[in-house]
Amino acid sequence: MADELELDLVEISAKADPPVCKILDYQKYLYQQRKKAKEMKSNAAKVVIKEIRFGPNTDEHDFQFKLKHAQEFLQEGSKVKATIFFRGRSIMFKDQGEKQLLRFAVELEEFGRAENMPVLEGKRMTMMIAPAKKK
């Protein structure tokens, strides 16, 4: 029957008794599967990470300025990666940098939640803040 219709005989379930087969155009079927997979991938949510960098001795005005930018990023649905960069001897102020990151997270509490505690990696201390779920 498949030869008469110039289509392919595709085995659906070999374990069934008798085996289940279907007559269809196999190339068209594969094309539709790829198209469906591509469409599912394009509909998936893409995570955007915005990075905000400052030093351990950042002034109050600069801190507030960067805080405002972080609020905007979180409201548009992006994750925020807050980074404190230690240059030269400023690595001695690790505790000051950690306090600043924790304060940053507390100030952004209504817009997002901290995913982890501040982590020191070499000369930089980072913290990820994810946007709050919209109700």
Description:
Helix 3 links the parallel strand 3 (about 50-55) and strand 4 (about 80-85). Strands 3, 4, 5, 6 and 7 form a 5-stranded mixed sheet that branches. A two-stranded antiparallel sheet has the order 1-2. The mean pLDDT is about 90. It folds into 2 domains: about 1-45, Roll (Ubiquitin-like (UB roll)), CATH 3.10.20.80; about 50-130, 2-Layer Sandwich (Translation Initiation Factor IF3), CATH 3.30.110.10. With about 140 residues, the chain is an alpha+beta fold. The protein has 4 helices and 7 strands. The termini are far apart. The protein has helices at about 1-5, 25-45, 60-75, 95-105; strands at about 10-15, 20-25, 50-55, 80-85, 110-115, 120, 125-130.
What key phrases describe this protein's structure?
135 residues; five-stranded mixed sheet; alpha+beta; Ubiquitin-like (UB roll); 28% strand; two-stranded antiparallel ribbon; Translation Initiation Factor IF3; 2 domains; single chain; 39% helix
List the domain count as a whole number: 2
Percent helix: 25-40%
Helix and strand pattern: HEEHEHEHEEE
Second rung of CATH, namely the architecture of the largest domain:
2-Layer Sandwich
Low-confidence stretches: none
How is this structure best summarized?
The chain is of the alpha+beta class and 135 residues long.
